Predict the 3D structure of the following.
Amino acid sequence: MEINEFIDNLAAQFDETSADQLKPETEFRKLDEWSSLIALSIIAMADEEYGVTLKGDDIKGATTVQDLFDVVNAKKA
Amino acid sequence: MAFCEYKNVRIAGVAAGVPRTIASNLTLSAERGEISADYTPEQFVELTGVKERRYSDVLTTSDLGFAAALRLLADLGWEKSDVEAIIFVSQTADYALPATACILQDRLGLSKECFAMDIVLGCSGWVYGLSVAAAMASSGQFKKILLVAGDAKRRAPQKFDPLFGCAATATAVEYAERSDGFRFHVGTDGSGYDAIIIPDSGSRNQVKPESFEMHDWEGRPYHNMMTHMKGMDVFSFGITTAPKTIKKLAEHYAFDYLSYDYYLFHQANMKMNNMIVKKLKLDPAKVPSEMYNFGNTSSASIPLLMVTQIRDQINGQNKKFLCCGFGVGLSWGTVVFEQAIKVSPLVEVDDSDVNYGYKLPEGDLSNV
């Protein structure tokens, strides 16, 4: 699992934030567009693309895009 | 593996009762604590799919269920004396005790030779209640059973959650020789007990003045007599569990789950249900939704779909149904059946139809 591919999938959950704006170190909660709606979309994306069931605490415990990637990657293994 | 099959039993008919009053979600306000500041009312409607819902701060679930049951008995031509069992599925009982099914036995004028009990489940409740009724009727020992399922007025005053609507349904289950009956898969994961919970007012956390103190819950003011939901956990539970239980049932009984006429899902929220439809690759035209007008009505949601969305297409006609409920518990269940069901028109209940017949006696209760 590549982080670039993950970032593309992540960016698809946002309307106005492109993949270029998402770096591994980006703190996603600080993005203007961030909302609990997007959190639900990310849970759906992880399920659809990676077969991973994310819980609320997984999202709440992550700060950066890298953190999100790590939790999905760990659950995928 | 929690699979079961009951033959020689069918649903004779369904009816539903809702308050006449409509509450709109387009006037919700974050300042008043009705929605999270994350959303505008329009975004809330888009996410949840709930534009409006039926609401009453007077009518209880049993008031609505009573109205639905009366209509159903009349439409089916069932004699009250023929009903041998009543099962009430709800998380909003009239009283902490006795069981509301007992109250409905009397209020409906059913025989005293009547089995009556409550089942305390929510979103999965209709499927569970149906499995109990089907088990009782399939042997022919109980010929006619009323299953009343729904949720309405809460046990403590609160700003009504804009996701939830008030409704109660009545389902008539009867012994029917040579009917193919029902096939069920049910499951439970109590480790998620706090994903949807009213923390206070059971015996674990008794009611106390602090139960009504407001605190922040996911950006909204809540007190401990309100339903606390971990939205993200419930969402991920729904989108994974519903497809799994349906696929398990299909695999166990070796049928094609895509061959059904209607897929009636618990109406949780639009985003969750759309995801489930997509994962199962269902034709959306076969998956009716009522969230726009009625919201999440807990254990009433599945039969309410029959009454409000597809009555003209199914009333009295043989159709194949796949129904799936999932939520609070955590608890889930799927049932499939091919039957011709008589569907009563929606019963709208006025606040003035509240039942005051079972008020607490006034004065000293120490000798009661």
Observations:
- The interface with chain B takes residues 35-37, 39-40, 43-44, 47-48, 53-56, 59 of chain A (CB under 8 Å).
- Residues 3-76 of chain A form a domain with the Non-ribosomal Peptide Synthetase Peptidyl Carrier Protein; Chain A fold (CATH 1.10.1200.10).
- Chain A is about 55% helix and 0% strand.
- Residues 36-50 of chain A form the longest helix (15 residues).
